Amino acid sequence: QVQLVESGGGLVQAGGSLRLSCVVSGGTFRRYAMGWFRQASGKERELVAAISWSGGLTYYADSVKGRFTISRDNAKNTVYLQMNSLKPEDAAVYYCAAELKGPDKVVVVGYDYWGQGTQVTVSS
User: Fold this and answer.
1) Is residue 27 over pLDDT 90?
2) What share of the chain is helix, strand, coil (3-state, %, to 5)?
3) Looking at residue 101, what is its pLDDT?
4) Helix (H, G, I), strand (E, B) or coil at 53
5) What residues contact residue 107 under an 8 Å CB cut-off, 6+ apart?
6) CA-CA distance, 91 to 8, in Å (whole number)?
7) Would you place residue 13 in the very low, low, confident or very high pLDDT band (cuts 50, 70, 90)?
8) Is the dihedral of CA 70, 116, 32, 101 positive or negative?
9) Which helix (H) or strand (E) holds 93?
10) Residues 23 and 5: beta-carbon distance below 8 Å
11) How far apart are CA 51 and CA 40, in angstroms?
């Protein structure tokens, strides 16, 4: 059973930074493409960033390019989302997701495994 546990959310002022972590257990982490999604109140869940199993390929939503960085440490079974220059519109519940992927590619849809989410609140 693959389990994903996010941490690192919290309250931050606009312009501040947070680093989210997601630890994956129950599977072979290095075989999973990973993604970070977010869902703000009353809005659809959206993909924020994604990374291939090697870490060599990444994807970012236009709204976070240049501010957020996704990375992974396959030795620690962990994927990270460094969020800088946070804006009030970044406030949401952030979820990490995993997809077993053969080729080394980013995944934008169709994730099989999800974490429970971590709340990010940005005050203006």
Assistant:
1) no
2) 5, 50, 45
3) 79
4) coil
5) 33, 35, 50, 99, 101
6) 13
7) very high
8) negative
9) strand 92-100
10) yes
11) 22
